[in-house]
Amino acid sequence: MSELDASFVSEPLPLVVSVRLRRGGPVHDFDPGSLVLARDDRVLVETDRGPALGTVVGPPLRRATGGRLHRVLQLADPRDLSVEDDQLQRQQALRRSVLEVFRDRGLPIKLVKVEHAVDGTRALVYYASEERYEHRELARELSGLLGIRVEMRQIGARDEAKTAGGIGVCGRELCCSSWLREFQAVSVKMAKAQGLALNFSKLAGQCGRLKCCMRYEYQTYLELRRELPAVGKRVETVKGNGEVVSQSLLKQIVRVRRDQDGELVDVTLDELVEQRRDG
Fold this sequence. Notes:
The protein has about 280 residues and is an alpha+beta fold. It is built from nine helices and 13 strands. The strands form three sheets. Strands 1, 2, 3, 4, 5 and 6 form a six-stranded antiparallel β-sheet that branches. A four-stranded antiparallel β-sheet has the order 10-11-12-13, with no helix packed on it. A hairpin with a 4-residue loop joins strand 11 and strand 12 (about 255-260). The longest helix is centred in the N-terminal third of the chain and has 27 residues, at about 80-105.
């Protein structure tokens, strides 16, 4: 190995800290520098639009990055937090004004969130609607009434839950609003693979869509199912031969209806003659 190759291999990965700039918003990576940071620390970070407050979502770790990172400037001080409080109060007042316009006009849309720019010149309005809604005229009307530039963005059911936040049936904060960076496809096939009852009221999350957490163990269930003979397959076992009528994936057991007497017996992988031959 050349000296150049050796120096490249020994170079440590950069220290990276993940920070969320707004509740329910995406998580961004930053360079923590020499700062000692912990989860839930409030920090002032460098962004393309200037300094912004954020919350650390996990301790700094060494890992690869996609390029140059913005820096964490400092831990937030009382003055920074006071400015944030003032900002939130202005944002709440702006939300009430926008909501009043929606109600007065009987609009078929739901106000989800209003974000107010630090400099007070712009507002971003997030709304949800069952159908595509043309909002350009409404944005111009709101801009005239509020005296600031208003941008409107229609979001889907999952993004609505992510933005609003909440507690799931598991008793913990929603994955989408606490740590999940992006949504991935979830299908009924995943519920079937895990042996879940196809009761939509239990499979749906706060957003009304299939729960994202059904993806977490999906691959594990596929691997567990691959080891077991399928339902309906005829098998030879040390307890007698018969047909598989059900599976217990987590226990790695199949229930077999025995040919000789029709009795149902539970059979482990080690008790399957075919499996033992393959091994």
